[in-house]
Amino acid sequence: MKKIININLSGRVIPIEDSAYEKLQGYIESLRRYFSKEEGRDEIINDIESRIAELMEDKIRKGATAVTDADIDAIAASMGRPDDLDAELNEETSGSEKSSEPNFTYGNTRAKRRLYRNTNDKLLGGVCSGIANYLDIDPAIIRLLFAIITLGGFGFGVLAYIILWIVLPEQGLGGYSGKRLYRNPDDRVLGGVASGLAAYFNKDTKTIRLIFSIPLILILLKVLIGIFSAPFLHFGYVFPIAFGSLTGTFILAYIILWIVLPEANTEYQKMEMRGETIDVNRIKQNVQDKAREFGEEVKSAAHNFSQRIGGYSKDKSKKFAQEVSQAAGRAGTGFGHVIGVIFKVFFFFIAGSIAFALFVGLLALLFSGVAWWPVNNFLWTSDWQKLFAWGTIIFFLLVPLVGFITWLVRRIMRVRSGSGYMGWTFGALWFLGWVCVIFLAASIARDFRYYEETKNEISIEQPAGKITLGVTDPELTFNGGYGWMSDEPNGWNITDDTLRLSWVNIDVKLSTDSNYHVILWKNSWGKNDEDAIRRAEGINYDIAYASNYLNLGNGYAVGKEDKFRGQHVVLEVQVPAGKKIRFDRTITEKLNNVDVEVYDSYGRRRNWNRRGVHIRDYDFRWSTNTDYVMGEDGVLFNPDRPNEVKPKDGYRYNDNKSRKEELKEELKKLEEQEKKDSMNKQSAAKQESMEDLKESVSFDTYTSPIFSVARFFN
User: Fold this and answer.
1) What is the rounded distance in angstroms from the CA atom of residue 277 to the CA atom of residue 445?
2) For the whole model, what pTM was predicted?
3) Are residues 577 and 529 in the same domain?
4) How far apart are CA 587 and CA 589, in angstroms?
5) If 0-12 CB within 10 Å is exposed, 13-18 middle and 19+ buried, where does residue 455 land?
6) Angle subtended at Cα 551 by Cα 549 and Cα 557, rounded to the nearest 5 degrees
7) Are residues 639 and 507 in the same domain?
8) Distance between CA 338 and CA 708 in Å, rounded?
9) Which residue range is the domain that position 413 belongs to?
10) Separation in Å, CA 30 to CA 81, 88, 508, 643
11) Is residue 638 pLDDT above 70, yes or no?
12) Which tens digit of pLDDT belongs to each residue from 577-592?
């Protein structure tokens, strides 16, 4: 059994067999003798030792317990021995003649090769490195393919890996010495994956980055096609499947490459990434090139320094003060630069997220303009509002999105601009967009300054003791051809000249006489009282009465001349005391009820007032198909359940504050009664337990504290 020792080579602690260490010392000593007469021999030997230490550490990282004699022989063969270096020049001169002759040995060698699991380069079982050795490619590529097949093929890669692990025999194979796939840290935007692939395949980095940018392009195309496909193309399910699969594959491949590929941190890893042969001659050339570059830099620095010394002699104190000021400025701005970079990262991330969200909405606005045309008929009251709306879409939404996409593309393609005219242009256009937003909001807000309602009494024949409310018309449903509007088609409909809504509220009150009364209240906003009244009167809602049945329309209509400014209707039914009212089930099935509460707030200026509106969903609290009776107090109640709590209002908010207070008092009394009943039950239970305790013990009424403590712990 060979002895294993730990050595420190170029700052790396490596376990190595005793005999292998002797071989390593002999190899390095032979290189010292070979390069003894070379310029910079110490730097050459140091770099060679660093490369050898890197290769040995790679062996340990891949699962080897220690560096063996065979490993040292393989490293020496890949780096080159001094005996072989002298004959290299002769081999190069005769190589051209040999290359012209046909090579018939490749096929025989290829035929004799077998597929093994490589035990010298394994992460799990050595399957990927064995396949890579057989194909003579980088093992990272095979590992990447297995990862993609595993994640994208429902686990098929795991099954294939296990089968190969069982079937293939294991053997220690030589390491891969060709071009390797790394992540390039010198030219990276996001992880260095694209630049590493470009170096491996000898392609332009911009081309690889553009390929990986395809997912963003496909997402945008998917949004566009999704917008067009529903109303026009009618094949919206085809493109999302194709684009979704391809987009996911690109994103998944990039993430896996980022995780699997190592980063080329050292100079020799970067040489492997570029496919350069790394041997002692290449290391010698690299060291000498660096020495020459360093010498030129020293000469240039010395020349510049001499010129600066001559300048300093003229005004030494002034120059010294300037240097001190510049140094202090650099030191002071160092920390600020870090803070600025962090701020930029957060700013661009947040701005990019907001911009992308707005971009989706913008595409829906721009590319479905035909579908939006009926809605436009009910939104804008003037050409100025239309102009401000388009200005908002183009300058406020489109400009920053185009600017962000332009910045992103230029960032990916590493394109720098020498002037700031583009930034100033986008800034000016976005400022114009803010102006359009402000004017649009102000113009629309003027249409909501006043709130008015009109009263319309509906004449009915007095029913014989009961009136029934219902809807015989079919449920209001959107029947247009605009696919983007058909997500929730019930409760509304729109055509080129009419907007129909089922927002109908019902208010039941006590009649002041012995007759039933039906009143239709029409409500609307406007820029003044006359405008609000005109819009309210323009609401069209059909109500019919026959045989004690009040047939309500399934919705009210708003014309395009009136525009939509919050118009809605309230149906008030006044029921005499002791008379009945019944709600058909169609009331809750076909009418959507919105409770609209209007409040006034008067300002300090004379003749100025502003009304607010609060809109909320309102639940129908009455049971359908039930005969309710109007009480003397103006509250409906169910005669079959006289003890149930009676809400003061069945459909719409109650304007009578006293009725709300009465309801609160009744609820409060019920809660107090429930608490009293609960307390009585608890006291009765306690009394029974005390009587049982008295019967079970023979002590007097007085119980000592010691007995209480003992009973507590028992």
Assistant:
1) 74
2) 0.43
3) yes
4) 6
5) exposed
6) 165
7) yes
8) 69
9) 315-445
10) 8, 17, 108, 109
11) yes
12) 989 999 998 888 888 7
